[in-house]
Amino acid sequence: xxxxxxxxxxxxxxxxxxxxxxxxxxxxxxxxxxxxxxxxxxxxxxxxxxxxxxxxxxxxxxxxxxxxxxxxxxxxxxxxxxxxxxxxxxxxxxxxxxxxxxxxxxxxxxxxxxxxxxxxxxxxxxxxxxxxxxxxxxxxxxxxxxxxxxxxxxxxxxxxxxxxxxxxxxxxxxxxxxxxxxxxxxxxxxxxxxxxx
Amino acid sequence: xxxxxxxxxxxxxxxxxxxxxxxxxxxxxxxxxxxxxxxxxxxxxxxxxxxxxxxxxxxxxxxxxxxxxxxxxxxxxxxxxxxxxxxxxxxxxxxxxxxxxxxxxxxxxxxxxxxxxxxxxxxxxxxxxxxxxxxxxxxxxxxxxxxxxxxxxxxxxxxxxxxxxxxxxxxxxxxxxxxxxxxxxxxxxxxxxxxxxxxxxxxxxxxxxxxxxxxxxxxxxxxxxxxxxxxxxxxxxxxxxxxxxxxxxxxxxxxxxxxxxxxxxxxxxxxxxxxxxxxxxxxxxxxxxxxxxxxxxxxxxxxxxxxxxxxxxxxxxxxxxxxxxxxxxxxxxxxx
Lengths: 197, 336
Fold this sequence. Notes:
By secondary structure, chain A is an all-alpha fold. Chain A is 75% helix and 0% strand.
Protein backbone atom coordinates (compact mmCIF):
# COMPACT_ATOMS: atom_id res chain seq x y z
CA UNK A 1 0.00 0.00 0.00
CA UNK A 2 1.98 2.98 -1.25
CA UNK A 3 -0.60 5.73 -1.10
CA UNK A 4 -1.01 7.24 2.38
CA UNK A 5 -4.50 8.45 1.51
CA UNK A 6 -5.58 4.87 0.79
CA UNK A 7 -4.13 3.79 4.10
CA UNK A 8 -5.92 6.62 5.92
CA UNK A 9 -9.29 5.80 4.36
CA UNK A 10 -8.79 2.08 5.05
CA UNK A 11 -8.10 2.95 8.68
CA UNK A 12 -11.23 5.08 8.90
CA UNK A 13 -13.32 2.30 7.36
CA UNK A 14 -11.96 -0.30 9.76
CA UNK A 15 -12.72 2.11 12.59
CA UNK A 16 -16.33 2.51 11.43
CA UNK A 17 -16.79 -1.23 10.99
CA UNK A 18 -15.37 -1.95 14.45
CA UNK A 19 -17.50 0.70 16.13
CA UNK A 20 -20.59 -0.59 14.33
CA UNK A 21 -19.82 -4.05 15.68
CA UNK A 22 -19.41 -2.57 19.17
CA UNK A 23 -22.75 -0.72 18.88
CA UNK A 24 -24.40 -3.94 17.80
CA UNK A 25 -23.01 -5.78 20.83
CA UNK A 26 -24.09 -2.96 23.16
CA UNK A 27 -27.58 -2.97 21.67
CA UNK A 28 -28.07 -6.62 22.56
CA UNK A 29 -26.42 -6.40 26.00
CA UNK A 30 -27.86 -6.29 29.50
CA UNK A 31 -27.74 -2.84 31.18
CA UNK A 32 -25.18 -3.82 33.86
CA UNK A 33 -22.81 -5.17 31.20
CA UNK A 34 -23.18 -1.91 29.29
CA UNK A 35 -22.23 0.01 32.40
CA UNK A 36 -19.13 -2.16 32.86
CA UNK A 37 -18.22 -1.60 29.22
CA UNK A 38 -18.62 2.18 29.57
CA UNK A 39 -16.35 2.25 32.61
CA UNK A 40 -13.78 0.11 30.78
CA UNK A 41 -13.88 2.44 27.79
CA UNK A 42 -12.83 5.40 30.00
CA UNK A 43 -9.62 3.58 30.74
CA UNK A 44 -8.17 2.93 34.16
CA UNK A 45 -5.04 1.41 35.65
CA UNK A 46 -6.64 0.87 39.07
CA UNK A 47 -9.01 -1.83 37.86
CA UNK A 48 -6.22 -4.34 37.15
CA UNK A 49 -5.93 -7.01 39.85
CA UNK A 50 -2.82 -9.01 40.79
CA UNK A 51 -4.43 -12.07 39.28
CA UNK A 52 -4.87 -10.29 35.96
CA UNK A 53 -1.29 -9.04 36.11
CA UNK A 54 -0.14 -12.65 36.14
CA UNK A 55 -1.52 -12.96 32.60
CA UNK A 56 -0.77 -9.45 31.42
CA UNK A 57 2.89 -9.15 32.46
CA UNK A 58 4.26 -12.19 30.59
CA UNK A 59 2.44 -11.28 27.36
CA UNK A 60 3.73 -7.71 27.58
CA UNK A 61 7.26 -8.99 28.21
CA UNK A 62 7.07 -11.19 25.10
CA UNK A 63 5.86 -8.19 23.05
CA UNK A 64 8.70 -6.03 24.38
CA UNK A 65 11.21 -8.80 23.71
CA UNK A 66 10.09 -9.06 20.10
CA UNK A 67 10.31 -5.26 19.78
CA UNK A 68 13.90 -5.24 21.06
CA UNK A 69 14.81 -7.98 18.58
CA UNK A 70 13.33 -5.83 15.80
CA UNK A 71 15.86 -3.03 16.30
CA UNK A 72 17.92 -3.88 13.25
CA UNK A 73 15.02 -4.52 10.80
CA UNK A 74 13.30 -1.30 11.93
CA UNK A 75 16.47 0.67 11.22
CA UNK A 76 16.75 -0.91 7.78
CA UNK A 77 13.14 0.05 7.06
CA UNK A 78 13.84 3.74 7.77
CA UNK A 79 14.67 4.21 4.09
CA UNK A 80 11.64 2.32 2.81
CA UNK A 81 10.94 -1.28 1.88
CA UNK A 82 12.92 -1.35 -1.36
CA UNK A 83 16.12 -0.19 0.29
CA UNK A 84 15.56 -2.61 3.16
CA UNK A 85 15.12 -5.47 0.70
CA UNK A 86 18.22 -4.42 -1.24
CA UNK A 87 20.21 -4.64 2.01
CA UNK A 88 19.12 -8.23 2.54
CA UNK A 89 16.10 -7.82 4.86
CA UNK A 90 13.24 -10.27 4.55
CA UNK A 91 10.58 -7.57 4.54
CA UNK A 92 7.57 -9.91 4.78
CA UNK A 93 8.96 -11.63 7.84
CA UNK A 94 9.97 -8.35 9.44
CA UNK A 95 6.50 -6.92 8.84
CA UNK A 96 4.90 -9.97 10.47
CA UNK A 97 6.98 -9.61 13.62
CA UNK A 98 6.43 -5.84 13.77
CA UNK A 99 2.67 -6.39 13.61
CA UNK A 100 2.93 -9.23 16.13
CA UNK A 101 4.81 -7.10 18.63
CA UNK A 102 2.54 -4.07 18.18
CA UNK A 103 -0.62 -6.21 18.44
CA UNK A 104 0.55 -8.02 21.56
CA UNK A 105 1.47 -4.78 23.32
CA UNK A 106 -1.50 -2.64 22.30
CA UNK A 107 -4.03 -5.48 22.52
CA UNK A 108 -3.04 -6.63 25.98
CA UNK A 109 -3.00 -3.18 27.52
CA UNK A 110 -6.34 -2.31 25.92
CA UNK A 111 -7.91 -5.54 27.16
CA UNK A 112 -6.97 -4.93 30.78
CA UNK A 113 -6.85 -1.13 31.09
CA UNK A 114 -9.23 0.08 28.39
CA UNK A 115 -8.43 2.11 25.29
CA UNK A 116 -5.86 4.69 26.39
CA UNK A 117 -5.36 7.14 23.57
CA UNK A 118 -2.43 9.18 22.35
CA UNK A 119 0.39 7.67 24.42
CA UNK A 120 1.17 5.28 21.60
CA UNK A 121 1.08 8.04 18.98
CA UNK A 122 2.73 10.84 20.92
CA UNK A 123 5.53 9.14 22.86
CA UNK A 124 7.54 7.79 19.90
CA UNK A 125 7.48 11.20 18.19
CA UNK A 126 8.39 12.90 21.47
CA UNK A 127 11.37 10.57 21.86
CA UNK A 128 12.55 11.14 18.30
CA UNK A 129 12.44 14.89 18.77
CA UNK A 130 13.92 14.91 22.28
CA UNK A 131 16.80 12.59 21.46
CA UNK A 132 17.23 13.88 17.89
CA UNK A 133 17.76 10.33 16.74
CA UNK A 134 16.09 7.88 14.40
CA UNK A 135 18.17 4.93 15.63
CA UNK A 136 15.91 2.26 17.10
CA UNK A 137 18.78 1.06 19.29
CA UNK A 138 18.16 4.23 21.28
CA UNK A 139 14.48 4.75 20.48
CA UNK A 140 13.05 1.40 21.59
CA UNK A 141 14.42 1.54 25.17
CA UNK A 142 13.59 5.26 25.30
CA UNK A 143 9.99 4.71 24.15
CA UNK A 144 9.53 1.90 26.71
CA UNK A 145 10.74 4.16 29.54
CA UNK A 146 9.11 7.43 28.45
CA UNK A 147 5.86 5.61 27.61
CA UNK A 148 5.70 4.08 31.08
CA UNK A 149 6.50 7.43 32.71
CA UNK A 150 3.88 9.25 30.61
CA UNK A 151 1.24 6.64 31.52
CA UNK A 152 2.07 6.95 35.24
CA UNK A 153 2.01 10.76 35.13
CA UNK A 154 -1.36 10.66 33.34
CA UNK A 155 -2.64 8.25 36.01
CA UNK A 156 -1.38 10.52 38.81
CA UNK A 157 -3.21 13.47 37.26
CA UNK A 158 -6.32 11.33 36.81
CA UNK A 159 -6.39 10.53 40.53
CA UNK A 160 -6.89 14.30 41.12
CA UNK A 161 -4.78 14.72 44.26
CA UNK A 162 -6.82 16.22 47.11
CA UNK A 163 -10.19 15.15 45.74
CA UNK A 164 -12.28 12.00 45.88
CA UNK A 165 -12.93 12.06 42.13
CA UNK A 166 -10.99 9.86 39.70
CA UNK A 167 -10.94 11.10 36.09
CA UNK A 168 -10.93 8.59 33.22
CA UNK A 169 -7.31 8.23 32.18
CA UNK A 170 -8.29 8.51 28.52
CA UNK A 171 -9.50 12.06 29.21
CA UNK A 172 -6.12 13.03 30.65
CA UNK A 173 -4.02 11.48 27.86
CA UNK A 174 -6.22 12.99 25.14
CA UNK A 175 -6.20 16.46 26.71
CA UNK A 176 -2.41 16.48 26.70
CA UNK A 177 -1.82 14.21 23.73
CA UNK A 178 -4.01 15.87 21.09
CA UNK A 179 -2.34 19.31 21.35
CA UNK A 180 1.04 17.61 21.35
CA UNK A 181 0.37 15.72 18.10
CA UNK A 182 -0.92 18.92 16.48
CA UNK A 183 2.25 20.69 17.61
CA UNK A 184 4.42 17.96 16.08
CA UNK A 185 2.51 18.19 12.80
CA UNK A 186 2.92 21.97 12.63
CA UNK A 187 6.62 21.71 13.34
CA UNK A 188 6.89 19.10 10.61
CA UNK A 189 5.17 21.39 8.11
CA UNK A 190 7.69 24.12 8.88
CA UNK A 191 10.42 21.63 8.11
CA UNK A 192 12.01 21.95 11.53
CA UNK A 193 11.88 18.20 11.91
CA UNK A 194 10.80 15.64 9.47
CA UNK A 195 10.03 12.13 10.50
CA UNK A 196 8.86 9.03 8.77
CA UNK A 197 5.27 7.96 9.22
CA UNK B 1 41.26 -6.52 -14.70
CA UNK B 2 37.98 -5.92 -16.43
CA UNK B 3 35.80 -8.87 -15.46
CA UNK B 4 32.17 -9.70 -16.03
CA UNK B 5 29.95 -9.04 -13.00
CA UNK B 6 26.41 -9.53 -14.23
CA UNK B 7 25.14 -11.38 -17.28
CA UNK B 8 21.58 -11.43 -18.56
CA UNK B 9 20.77 -14.17 -21.06
CA UNK B 10 17.52 -14.10 -23.00
CA UNK B 11 15.96 -12.16 -20.14
CA UNK B 12 12.27 -11.28 -20.06
CA UNK B 13 11.15 -8.57 -17.68
CA UNK B 14 7.71 -7.38 -16.67
CA UNK B 15 5.05 -7.71 -14.03
CA UNK B 16 3.15 -10.72 -12.75
CA UNK B 17 -0.43 -9.78 -11.84
CA UNK B 18 -1.75 -13.29 -11.26
CA UNK B 19 -0.83 -16.81 -12.28
CA UNK B 20 -2.19 -16.37 -15.79
CA UNK B 21 -1.97 -12.62 -16.24
CA UNK B 22 1.35 -10.92 -16.75
CA UNK B 23 2.67 -7.87 -18.58
CA UNK B 24 5.86 -8.37 -20.58
CA UNK B 25 7.87 -5.19 -20.86
CA UNK B 26 10.93 -6.47 -22.70
CA UNK B 27 12.15 -9.84 -23.81
CA UNK B 28 15.19 -11.52 -25.26
CA UNK B 29 17.60 -9.19 -23.49
CA UNK B 30 21.26 -10.16 -23.56
CA UNK B 31 23.29 -7.82 -21.40
CA UNK B 32 26.62 -7.73 -19.63
CA UNK B 33 28.08 -5.51 -16.95
CA UNK B 34 31.81 -5.31 -16.29
CA UNK B 35 33.95 -4.00 -13.49
CA UNK B 36 35.53 -0.60 -14.12
CA UNK B 37 32.77 0.27 -16.53
CA UNK B 38 30.19 3.03 -16.24
CA UNK B 39 27.05 2.13 -18.18
CA UNK B 40 24.18 4.54 -18.71
CA UNK B 41 20.69 3.24 -19.41
CA UNK B 42 18.78 5.78 -21.47
CA UNK B 43 15.44 5.80 -23.20
CA UNK B 44 12.16 7.69 -23.35
CA UNK B 45 9.88 7.81 -20.31
CA UNK B 46 7.86 4.70 -19.61
CA UNK B 47 9.83 2.15 -21.66
CA UNK B 48 10.65 0.13 -18.54
CA UNK B 49 14.05 1.36 -17.43
CA UNK B 50 13.14 1.10 -13.76
CA UNK B 51 11.66 -2.36 -14.26
CA UNK B 52 14.91 -3.52 -15.84
CA UNK B 53 17.00 -2.09 -13.00
CA UNK B 54 14.70 -3.60 -10.38
CA UNK B 55 14.90 -6.98 -12.09
CA UNK B 56 18.70 -6.87 -12.38
CA UNK B 57 18.96 -6.12 -8.66
CA UNK B 58 16.41 -8.78 -7.73
CA UNK B 59 13.96 -6.24 -6.22
CA UNK B 60 11.45 -7.68 -8.65
CA UNK B 61 11.32 -11.21 -10.13
CA UNK B 62 12.26 -11.82 -13.76
CA UNK B 63 9.67 -13.48 -15.98
CA UNK B 64 12.12 -15.81 -17.73
CA UNK B 65 15.71 -16.15 -18.86
CA UNK B 66 18.95 -16.28 -16.91
CA UNK B 67 20.60 -13.73 -14.66
CA UNK B 68 24.12 -14.61 -13.59
CA UNK B 69 26.04 -12.71 -10.94
CA UNK B 70 29.72 -13.65 -11.08
CA UNK B 71 28.70 -16.72 -13.06
CA UNK B 72 26.18 -17.96 -10.47
CA UNK B 73 22.39 -17.61 -10.92
CA UNK B 74 21.01 -14.64 -9.02
CA UNK B 75 18.31 -16.70 -7.30
CA UNK B 76 20.95 -19.05 -5.80
CA UNK B 77 22.25 -16.19 -3.63
CA UNK B 78 20.88 -15.60 -0.15
CA UNK B 79 19.53 -12.07 0.20
CA UNK B 80 22.43 -11.17 2.49
CA UNK B 81 25.10 -12.53 0.15
CA UNK B 82 23.48 -10.61 -2.68
CA UNK B 83 23.46 -7.41 -0.62
CA UNK B 84 27.23 -7.70 -0.24
CA UNK B 85 27.68 -7.70 -4.01
CA UNK B 86 24.93 -5.44 -5.34
CA UNK B 87 23.68 -2.17 -3.89
CA UNK B 88 21.18 0.37 -5.18
CA UNK B 89 20.32 4.05 -5.17
CA UNK B 90 16.61 4.38 -5.89
CA UNK B 91 14.86 7.23 -7.60
CA UNK B 92 12.42 8.32 -4.90
CA UNK B 93 14.02 10.79 -2.48
CA UNK B 94 14.19 9.41 1.05
CA UNK B 95 12.68 11.46 3.83
CA UNK B 96 14.11 10.62 7.15
CA UNK B 97 14.25 13.01 10.07
CA UNK B 98 16.59 13.27 13.02
CA UNK B 99 19.27 11.20 11.40
CA UNK B 100 22.90 12.09 10.94
CA UNK B 101 24.58 11.38 7.61
CA UNK B 102 27.07 9.02 9.24
CA UNK B 103 24.20 6.92 10.66
CA UNK B 104 22.39 6.81 7.33
CA UNK B 105 25.53 5.66 5.54
CA UNK B 106 25.99 3.18 8.39
CA UNK B 107 22.68 1.55 7.45
CA UNK B 108 24.57 0.17 4.45
CA UNK B 109 26.43 -2.14 6.83
CA UNK B 110 23.20 -4.07 7.44
CA UNK B 111 24.29 -7.27 5.64
CA UNK B 112 27.56 -7.36 7.59
CA UNK B 113 26.31 -7.02 11.17
CA UNK B 114 24.61 -9.52 13.47
CA UNK B 115 21.20 -9.70 15.12
CA UNK B 116 21.82 -6.70 17.41
CA UNK B 117 23.58 -4.65 14.75
CA UNK B 118 26.68 -4.13 16.89
CA UNK B 119 29.45 -2.41 14.97
CA UNK B 120 32.98 -3.67 14.68
CA UNK B 121 35.90 -1.37 13.84
CA UNK B 122 35.87 -2.57 10.23
CA UNK B 123 32.24 -1.42 9.91
CA UNK B 124 33.20 2.08 11.03
CA UNK B 125 36.16 2.21 8.65
CA UNK B 126 33.98 0.95 5.77
CA UNK B 127 31.50 3.78 6.47
CA UNK B 128 34.35 6.30 6.53
CA UNK B 129 35.77 4.91 3.29
CA UNK B 130 32.33 5.08 1.64
CA UNK B 131 31.90 8.71 2.75
CA UNK B 132 35.30 9.59 1.28
CA UNK B 133 34.70 7.73 -1.97
CA UNK B 134 31.45 9.63 -2.49
CA UNK B 135 33.05 12.93 -1.51
CA UNK B 136 30.65 13.25 1.41
CA UNK B 137 33.08 13.12 4.33
CA UNK B 138 32.42 16.79 5.09
CA UNK B 139 28.71 16.04 5.55
CA UNK B 140 29.13 13.19 8.03
CA UNK B 141 27.92 15.02 11.12
CA UNK B 142 25.07 16.92 9.45
CA UNK B 143 21.42 15.93 9.65
CA UNK B 144 20.03 14.33 6.50
CA UNK B 145 16.96 16.60 6.33
CA UNK B 146 19.20 19.68 6.25
CA UNK B 147 21.06 18.64 3.10
CA UNK B 148 20.51 19.99 -0.38
CA UNK B 149 19.30 17.57 -3.04
CA UNK B 150 22.79 17.20 -4.50
CA UNK B 151 24.35 16.55 -1.10
CA UNK B 152 21.63 14.04 -0.27
CA UNK B 153 22.31 12.14 -3.49
CA UNK B 154 26.00 11.96 -2.57
CA UNK B 155 25.03 10.56 0.80
CA UNK B 156 22.71 7.97 -0.75
CA UNK B 157 25.58 6.89 -3.00
CA UNK B 158 27.84 6.69 0.04
CA UNK B 159 25.25 4.46 1.74
CA UNK B 160 25.26 2.16 -1.26
CA UNK B 161 29.07 2.09 -1.18
CA UNK B 162 29.06 1.12 2.50
CA UNK B 163 27.70 -2.23 1.34
CA UNK B 164 31.07 -2.65 -0.43
CA UNK B 165 29.34 -3.76 -3.62
CA UNK B 166 30.87 -4.98 -6.83
CA UNK B 167 27.89 -3.67 -8.76
CA UNK B 168 26.23 -0.33 -8.05
CA UNK B 169 22.84 0.30 -9.67
CA UNK B 170 21.32 3.78 -9.65
CA UNK B 171 17.84 4.66 -10.85
CA UNK B 172 17.82 8.22 -12.20
CA UNK B 173 20.31 9.56 -9.66
CA UNK B 174 20.35 12.99 -11.31
CA UNK B 175 16.60 13.49 -11.57
CA UNK B 176 16.10 16.11 -8.87
CA UNK B 177 19.43 17.89 -9.20
CA UNK B 178 20.45 21.23 -10.65
CA UNK B 179 22.96 21.27 -13.50
CA UNK B 180 26.18 21.40 -11.43
CA UNK B 181 24.75 18.67 -9.20
CA UNK B 182 23.99 16.50 -12.20
CA UNK B 183 27.48 16.90 -13.64
CA UNK B 184 29.08 16.19 -10.27
CA UNK B 185 26.96 13.07 -9.71
CA UNK B 186 27.71 11.72 -13.17
CA UNK B 187 31.41 12.35 -12.67
CA UNK B 188 31.29 10.63 -9.31
CA UNK B 189 29.72 7.52 -10.86
CA UNK B 190 32.37 7.45 -13.56
CA UNK B 191 35.07 7.77 -10.94
CA UNK B 192 33.61 4.91 -8.90
CA UNK B 193 33.90 2.70 -11.95
CA UNK B 194 37.30 3.83 -13.16
CA UNK B 195 39.15 4.54 -9.92
CA UNK B 196 37.46 2.14 -7.54
CA UNK B 197 36.79 -0.68 -9.96
CA UNK B 198 33.03 -0.96 -9.46
CA UNK B 199 30.58 -1.89 -12.16
CA UNK B 200 28.22 1.07 -12.28
CA UNK B 201 24.85 1.06 -14.03
CA UNK B 202 22.70 4.20 -13.94
CA UNK B 203 19.51 5.14 -15.73
CA UNK B 204 19.33 8.78 -16.69
CA UNK B 205 17.57 11.36 -18.83
CA UNK B 206 20.71 13.46 -19.02
CA UNK B 207 21.72 12.50 -22.53
CA UNK B 208 24.36 15.21 -22.77
CA UNK B 209 26.15 14.11 -19.63
CA UNK B 210 25.72 10.43 -20.38
CA UNK B 211 27.20 10.89 -23.81
CA UNK B 212 30.24 12.64 -22.37
CA UNK B 213 30.90 10.35 -19.45
CA UNK B 214 29.47 6.86 -20.02
CA UNK B 215 31.73 4.08 -21.27
CA UNK B 216 28.76 2.29 -22.70
CA UNK B 217 25.15 3.07 -23.28
CA UNK B 218 22.11 0.88 -23.15
CA UNK B 219 19.52 2.52 -25.33
CA UNK B 220 16.07 1.19 -24.53
CA UNK B 221 13.42 1.79 -27.15
CA UNK B 222 9.64 1.79 -26.98
CA UNK B 223 9.55 -1.86 -28.12
CA UNK B 224 11.71 -2.83 -25.12
CA UNK B 225 14.71 -3.74 -27.25
CA UNK B 226 18.06 -2.52 -26.00
CA UNK B 227 20.80 -1.25 -28.32
CA UNK B 228 24.25 -1.25 -26.82
CA UNK B 229 27.51 0.42 -27.59
CA UNK B 230 29.75 3.38 -26.94
CA UNK B 231 27.61 6.55 -27.02
CA UNK B 232 29.31 7.54 -30.26
CA UNK B 233 28.35 4.21 -31.87
CA UNK B 234 24.73 4.89 -31.13
CA UNK B 235 24.95 8.39 -32.57
CA UNK B 236 26.67 7.24 -35.76
CA UNK B 237 24.27 4.37 -36.37
CA UNK B 238 21.36 6.77 -36.08
CA UNK B 239 19.86 4.74 -33.22
CA UNK B 240 19.71 7.81 -31.04
CA UNK B 241 17.67 9.88 -33.40
CA UNK B 242 15.13 7.12 -34.07
CA UNK B 243 14.65 6.09 -30.43
CA UNK B 244 13.82 9.59 -29.27
CA UNK B 245 12.19 10.63 -32.53
CA UNK B 246 9.39 13.12 -32.09
CA UNK B 247 7.83 15.74 -34.33
CA UNK B 248 9.51 19.16 -34.00
CA UNK B 249 12.57 17.62 -32.35
CA UNK B 250 15.77 17.15 -34.26
CA UNK B 251 18.81 15.18 -33.22
CA UNK B 252 21.85 17.11 -34.32
CA UNK B 253 24.35 14.51 -35.52
CA UNK B 254 27.22 17.00 -35.28
CA UNK B 255 26.79 18.13 -31.70
CA UNK B 256 25.04 15.00 -30.43
CA UNK B 257 22.25 16.93 -28.81
CA UNK B 258 18.57 17.42 -29.40
CA UNK B 259 17.25 20.69 -30.66
CA UNK B 260 13.75 21.96 -30.97
CA UNK B 261 12.94 22.54 -34.58
CA UNK B 262 12.14 26.16 -35.44
CA UNK B 263 11.20 26.85 -39.02
CA UNK B 264 12.94 30.01 -40.31
CA UNK B 265 10.52 32.53 -41.78
CA UNK B 266 12.85 35.39 -42.66
CA UNK B 267 16.46 35.84 -43.62
CA UNK B 268 19.13 38.04 -42.16
CA UNK B 269 22.78 38.68 -42.86
CA UNK B 270 25.13 38.55 -39.87
CA UNK B 271 28.62 39.93 -39.74
CA UNK B 272 30.47 39.13 -36.55
CA UNK B 273 33.40 37.28 -35.13
CA UNK B 274 34.20 34.77 -32.41
CA UNK B 275 31.82 34.03 -29.55
CA UNK B 276 29.63 37.02 -30.35
CA UNK B 277 29.04 35.48 -33.78
CA UNK B 278 28.01 32.08 -32.36
CA UNK B 279 25.60 33.42 -29.77
CA UNK B 280 24.09 36.15 -31.93
CA UNK B 281 23.46 33.63 -34.69
CA UNK B 282 21.83 31.32 -32.18
CA UNK B 283 19.54 34.07 -30.93
CA UNK B 284 18.57 35.02 -34.49
CA UNK B 285 17.75 31.41 -35.34
CA UNK B 286 15.57 31.14 -32.28
CA UNK B 287 13.77 34.29 -33.35
CA UNK B 288 12.92 32.58 -36.64
CA UNK B 289 15.63 33.90 -38.96
CA UNK B 290 17.77 32.05 -41.39
CA UNK B 291 21.24 33.44 -40.75
CA UNK B 292 23.43 34.16 -43.81
CA UNK B 293 27.04 35.26 -43.94
CA UNK B 294 26.48 37.28 -47.08
CA UNK B 295 23.45 38.12 -49.14
CA UNK B 296 21.58 40.63 -51.27
CA UNK B 297 21.59 44.15 -49.91
CA UNK B 298 17.80 44.28 -49.53
CA UNK B 299 18.02 41.85 -46.59
CA UNK B 300 18.35 43.23 -43.09
CA UNK B 301 21.96 43.18 -41.97
CA UNK B 302 23.30 42.81 -38.42
CA UNK B 303 26.81 43.83 -37.57
CA UNK B 304 28.48 43.20 -34.24
CA UNK B 305 30.96 45.89 -33.31
CA UNK B 306 33.40 45.25 -30.50
CA UNK B 307 35.17 48.34 -29.27
CA UNK B 308 37.28 48.31 -26.10
CA UNK B 309 35.28 45.75 -24.08
CA UNK B 310 31.98 47.20 -25.25
CA UNK B 311 29.87 45.27 -27.72
CA UNK B 312 27.11 46.85 -29.79
CA UNK B 313 24.80 45.39 -32.39
CA UNK B 314 24.13 47.49 -35.50
CA UNK B 315 21.01 46.78 -37.50
CA UNK B 316 20.74 48.05 -41.06
CA UNK B 317 17.28 47.66 -42.53
CA UNK B 318 15.60 49.52 -45.41
CA UNK B 319 18.29 52.17 -45.28
CA UNK B 320 17.74 52.83 -41.57
CA UNK B 321 20.59 52.16 -39.13
CA UNK B 322 19.87 51.32 -35.51
CA UNK B 323 22.24 50.49 -32.68
CA UNK B 324 21.53 48.17 -29.72
CA UNK B 325 23.58 47.34 -26.63
CA UNK B 326 22.32 43.78 -26.15
CA UNK B 327 21.06 40.80 -28.14
CA UNK B 328 17.74 41.08 -26.39
CA UNK B 329 17.33 44.68 -27.53
CA UNK B 330 18.40 43.66 -31.05
CA UNK B 331 15.68 40.99 -31.22
CA UNK B 332 13.09 43.49 -30.00
CA UNK B 333 14.29 45.93 -32.67
CA UNK B 334 14.11 43.28 -35.37
CA UNK B 335 10.54 42.32 -34.51
CA UNK B 336 9.41 45.96 -34.43
